[in-house]
Amino acid sequence: MNTEPSDYIDFGLQEEHVAFRDQFRRFVLDRLVPIAERAEAEKRFPLEVYDELRNNGYLAVNYPEEVGGGGGDLLMGCIFYEELSRASAGISAGVFAHQHLAVGPILKFGTDAQKREYADPGLRGERIGAFGLTEPDAGSDIRGIKTVARRDGDDWVINGSKLYITNGCIADFMLVAARTDDGRANNSLTLFLVDTKDAGVKATELNKVGNHSSSTALVSFDDVRVGSDAIMGGMGGGLAMLKATLTEGRILVANRGLGIAQEAVECILSYSGQRRAFDQTIGKFQGVAFQISSIATRVDAARLMIYRAAHLKMAGKDCIREASMGKLLASEIAVEAAGKSLLLHGGAGYMEEMKVARLYRDAPEAWIGEGTNEIQLLVISKTLGLL
Ligand SMILES: Cc1cc2nc3c(=O)[nH]c(=O)nc-3n(C[C@H](O)[C@H](O)[C@H](O)COP(=O)(O)OP(=O)(O)OC[C@H]3O[C@@H](n4cnc5c(N)ncnc54)[C@H](O)[C@@H]3O)c2cc1C
């Protein structure tokens, strides 16, 4: 059943966006859903996804054509992540971390040599990237990171570890935030581009509640030696680049929660139209219909908020508050919709083979990743002058 407004154009999508959404949705259903189901069962990120995306022109959809992207705008990127996440939150986590947390900053802040070495093959899905910020003792508190890089002659030697790193075990390269100065000053952190084959880099896969088709790892750095050409964006520029990357990515990442929420609605719409109790389909009970309608309303609200933030961003206007609001609402509704949808499936919803069970396991990561919802509230509170 189509739960979307029949004509989206009034809500900021042009015909090209609607055409892209319909085409990409069909591609995802035909080509990616079968891969996602196998990958979930095998608990691995399916690298063949990059071949599928590349061969069908869906890699880097919202990067400029000059750098090898698809030339689409931010709204195309929003649609891409919503549709991909409907098929698999795990795969979308891996693709997002690669395209937007690893390749994106290199395109923006990297040297020409770094772009040639990492971003160009990254945009083709030939070399996979990871983003290393979070550590065992520091996540939300970026200034608290402990991984250290010490100068040794012309080289730098990195020691420390990064936790919960998406693509950690499959990445060819990683952006590593390291301390190059003591204290919490703005210039105490520097970003290094590390080849994961370098001596001293070790990745250990972690067991997660959900997102089973993504790799998430503890990555340790034991006397990892890199040249000064591994520094990205200048000495001491790490904090500013990390913040810019997370803020920029917020609008896109919000669509990951949105995709889970939309899929949870679709699951219960379909099930409630088939499952019978007391001589009628359960969707005909007002108690069920109202719950589904209430969730569908808030999923739509989240989408509109995300699109508003995207429009502001595309118009070059400040959208920090709107982006955080969109991410907050979309991930809250992802968790709520997945839970409600599961419950409305009755016992069937609790069975592992049902898609809604997977959505229920995957949804909370949308709340946590790229800045928890408490951090989004912190950002919103600051823009409201409260804190
Ligand atoms: C599946 C998965 C994939 C991930 N992928 C990556 C990745 O690729 N790269 C990467 O660097 N990180 C990644 N992360 C890490 C993620 O970004 C962090 O887990 C997140 O930022 C929170 O950090 P933390 O876990 O250290 O929690 P903490 O910062 O310790 O927070 C714990 C709790 O306290 C709350 N809290 C903290 N500070 C405040 C405050 N000032 N006000 C109010 N509440 C606060 C938090 O919201 C949270 O609820 C991933 C995490 C998961 C689960």
Distinct ligand kinds: flavin-adenine dinucleotide
Number of DSSP helices? Answer: 10
Number of domains: 3
Order of strands, widest sheet: 1-4-5-8
- CATH architecture grouping of the largest domain: Up-down Bundle
Describe the global form.
Answer: globular
Gyration radius over CA? 21 Å
Strand composition percent: 5-15%
CATH class assignment of the largest domain: Mainly Alpha
What is the CATH H-level superfamily of the largest domain? Butyryl-CoA Dehydrogenase, subunit A, domain 3
Overall pLDDT confidence:
96
Distance between the termini: 44 Å
What are the low-pLDDT stretches, counting only 5+ consecutive residues below 50? none
The run of helices and strands is HHHHHEEEEEEEEHEEHHHH
Structural class: alpha+beta
Biggest sheet layout: 4 strands, mixed
Query: Might you state the CATH topology name of the largest domain?
Result: Butyryl-CoA Dehydrogenase, subunit A, domain 3
Q: Give the proportion of residues in helices.
A: 40-55%
* Overall number of strands: 10
